[in-house]
Amino acid sequence: MGRSRIEDKAYTEPHSIVEVASKTLSSYPHLVSVTAVHDEKEKSIELIYTFSDFRGALKNISTRIPEDKKTLPSIASVAPAASIYEQEVSELFGVAFDGNPFTGKRVLLPDCFPNDVHPLLRNVKQEDLEKVVAGCMLGEPQIYVTGSSRYSAESVILLPFGPYHPALKEPERFILVLEGETIVDVIPKIGHVHRGIEKIAEGRTFLQDLFLVERICGICSFIHSWTFTLAVEELLNVKPSKKAEYLRTMIAELERIHSHVLWIGLLGYWTGFESMFMWIWRLREKIMSLLDLLTGNRVHKSFIAFGGVRRDVTDEKLNTVAKTIAEFEKDYKKLIDEIMSYEPLVERIKGIGMYNAEHAIRLGAVGPMIRATGIPYDIRKVEPYGAYDEIDFNVVTGKGGDVFNVTMVRIKEVLESINIIRQCIEKMPRNENPVPKTLVIGVVKEGEAVARTEAPRGELFYYVKAANSRNPHRVKIRTPTLANILLAADMLKGYTLSDVPVIITSIDPCFSCMDRALVVDKNHNSVFFVDFNKLRKENKRIR
Amino acid sequence: MADGQRSEHESFDRRLVRKSPWIFHFNSGGCNGCDIEFVAALTPLYDVERLGAKLVASPKHADVLVVTGPVTLQVAKSLKLIYDQMPEPKYVVAIGTCACSGGIFSGGYTVLGGVEKVIPVTICVPGCPPNPKEIFRALEAIYKGEIKVAGGGCGEEQNRG
Amino acid sequence: MTRLTMLKEVLKSLFSKPSTEPLAEVEKGVFSPYSRGCPVLIPEKCTGCSLCAMNCPSNAITMKIVGEKNVGGKTLPVRRPEFNYFKCIYCGLCAQVCQFNAIEMRRDLVILRPRSKC
Q1: Could you tell me which residue, A38 or B11, shows the higher pLDDT?
Q2: For the purposes of burial, counting CB atoms within 10 Å of the CB of A202, is it exposed (0-12), middle (13-18) or buried (19 or more)?
């Protein structure tokens, strides 16, 4: 049901993890996440590898390493997608992974962060971290330089793209290795939006965290809080009422429409079709006003509560939703017909950023990216949560991976969402009270739970561990953009510089989601840091 | 707005720069919520562009720096650098609770806090996220010259209106 | 056929209202009639239990000592919550957890009007 309590963890010895992982991958081909949990009492770190197949079955493999000897073989050789997840663990917990392509690089944490502080270890105190933050500001300004052992300066150009670039609305840095106009390699450096949410969450109560996780991302905010709620409800053994389930489903689908429509508008912006951007965003205001009507805010809905929702929705409001959605559908269909019959746009995105299904699975892609290749992997269908099991809808798939197919999948998913909202309004029980008696939940009994949902950008994964306390012991979040970024870096190769904005944005990147985690490149380039004065000297020498 | 009404607000530096506010948008580590509301303010329904406001790609062309999100350690230096590149007189608008004070993320190990810690702020627009109308009004205040360059910031004095 | 659709579109645009909101409308209101609003304390109802401060997701509420009261011969401080509107995320949780309905979410107030200190 989209969520489960972890009860059967297959325990493995640390040295045999690669062998076990490769065996598991043959029946569970999708690596969902690598979670690390620090246990300060037993002085050990537990690593949980979560695998899944494309029909909804989950398998957890666990291994334990002592606190003083934090090394483990990397499984990146059998599952390339693991390289990012392992790098995240290694920076935040200080675990060394033998054979990980990113070993020795700083990808997620700020440059001025000391190397020996691993913030997510339980024994790192808040006061120490505050000292680190204060110390960071006093340091010398640093500037990145990418050096390379593989590329000689004569044959390639290293072009920095970002962190503040007109084509990116969020700060993120990509260093493009160019041969003439053609991209041969991409080195992403992320972490500009890393806010340390997982650590903050450990210091606050479950109820406060509900509002914190919502603010991971402004575009998919509701689905974050819903997934967290699913995991906590599993720990509490609470079931929301039928009406609450339908209301949640309806808000999630409205959010999906708003997210996809926003993306289609931005696609117009990035392909230089600005009137399309304005038209689409004007249309989107209808959905925003509906969200305002139902939840009280246009962006951060704060609508969900453990065991229900926070405010009831009257029949009158539901009628307004039905009416507005019908208007929206008419306008949307007309607008999309106009846009997709405009040939320069279709030419611009067709055949750009090609990839195939096997590629997508290997790099761990999720959401519309994997569905564009024809694999019907949608958590709403394979592991229904909320009211999705009572609703009749189709999983939209494409005919092969490129930007055009991804666009078509998103366009059709909006229509499917409209269909779901309509069914929600029809089937919703009207005489129930979806608001729980109290919002405060107090102490949560010991246990571990995972929850998966289909966010607008793909599969979203939460792991919550409670230890008889008001605060969670550990909250692990794996966001869809993190799973897709390796594919995006790979898609860029072989295309020209002018395709970069279109391809990077085709995965609908949400760096604010991703950066509480991280990303990295998959090549063996070295990225090193020099201070500003040294760089100036180098520059003078060149001149 | 009547002409007489406008001249009432006109200060000396306002008379020096009588032109449309050009905006540079800077995400200092926010959640995207304020960013999409800011972009929504530019689009047809709210249409900040009727004030002559325009989103520009370089800070060197900008009069107004719009900052969204809490300042993280990684971007703090970029923020200072971009602020220094803007020509005088410059205005800084902090959009959203996070940009005003660090908000819900204050206390994180990479979060420095509000924009004020790095650069002076002219107007703070709290809200999570603020409505596009509110963003419109903040920019309008700058356009009409109701606000001087040196900033009021997000101090306690502003707390009650 | 395309000409006909074009003509229809032109005529429709000519006689329909512009989609942009009029300036007066934008300048007037901040909160929509459905929004969660802005928390304001009703001091008469407050008992100073600090439930709101404990549950505030962004720690924007501080309990300030505003006076003293005499309970059974002992002098106890009287506490009242104070909101920091530049830290508040306007989620309305404080009003919902309050047992005495001492926090009102008001939509008519224009507390947040950007002002300069000068």
Answers
A1: A38
A2: middle
> What distance separates the 2 farthest-apart alpha carbons in chain A?
78
How many domains is chain B built from?
1
Domain boundaries, chain C: 32-106
Question: What is the spatial distance between Cα A395 and Cα A417, in angstroms, rounded to a whole number?
Answer: 11
Q: Using CA atoms, how far apart are residues C21 and C25, in angstroms rounded to an integer?
A: 6
Any idea what the Cα angle at residue A206 is, between residues A295 and A508, rounded to 5°?
55
CATH class name, domain A1-104+113-133: alpha beta
Q: Do C97 and A310 touch (CB under 8 A)?
A: no
- DSSP secondary structure of A227-260: HHHHHHHHHHT----HHHHHHHHHHHHHHHHHHH
B18 to chain C, any CB pair closer than 8 A? The answer is: no
Tokens 């002409």 -> residue:
B3
Instruction: Please write the tens of the pLDDT for every residue from A342-367.
Output: 888 898 888 888 888 888 888 889 99
Length of chain B counted residue by residue: 161
**pLDDT surpassing 70 at residue B9:** no
Write out the residue limits of the CATH 1.10.645.10 domain(s) in chain A: 218-465
CA A291 – CA A369 distance, rounded (Å): 27
Chain A residues within 8 A of C32 when measuring between CB atoms: 289, 292
**Residue B35 falls within a domain, yes or no?**
yes
Indicate whether B2 belongs to any domain.
Answer: no
**B97 with A300: CB under 8 angstroms?**
no
Domain spanning A218-465: CATH superfamily: Cytochrome-c3 Hydrogenase, chain B (1.10.645.10)
Q: Running DSSP on this structure, what letter comes out for residue C80?
A: E
- The shortest C-alpha distance from A421 to chain B (Å) reads 23
CA distances from A462 to A238, A479, A480 (A): 18, 9, 11
The C-alpha of B123 sits at a distance from chain C's nearest C-alpha, in angstroms, of 6
B25 lies in which domain range? 21-135
Q: Which of A97, A125, A102, A128 is nearest to A114 (CA)?
A: A128
Tell whether B143 is covered by a domain: no
Beta bridge partners of A387: none
Rounded percentage of chain B residues whose pLDDT exceeds 70: 78
- DSSP one-letter string for A443-467: -B-SEEEEEEEEETTEEEEEEEEE-
A237's CB contacts (< 8 A; 6+ apart) are none
Q: Nearest residue of C to residue A442 by CA position?
A: C55
Average pLDDT over all residues of chain C: 81
Task: Indicate where chain A has its CATH 3.30.460.80 domain(s).
Answer: 1-104+113-133
Which residues in chain A come in under a pLDDT of 70?
1-2, 137-155, 167, 513-543
Can you tell me the distance from the alpha carbon of C114 to that of B115, in angstroms, rounded to the nearest whole number?
16
For A293-338, what is each residue's pLDDT tens digit?
999 888 898 899 998 999 889 999 999 999 999 999 999 999 999 8
In a domain? residue B140:
no
CATH 3.40.50.10280 fits C32-106, yes or no: no
Tell me the ipTM for this assembly: 0.87
Chain B interface includes A170 (CB < 8 A): yes
Chains that touch B (3 or more CB pairs under 8 A): A, C
Handedness of CA A249, A250, A255, A258 (dihedral sign): positive
How is residue A468 written in tokens?
């008889």
Indicate yes or no: CB of A194 within 8 angstroms of CB of B72. yes
**Residue A22 host element (H or E):** helix A17-27
Whole-number Å distance between alpha carbons of A95 and A106: 14
Q: Please, are residues A193 and A171 in contact by the beta-carbon 8 Å criterion?
A: yes
Contact (Cβ atoms closer than 8 angstroms) between residue A187 and residue A147: no
What's the CATH code of the domain at B37?
A: 3.40.50.12280
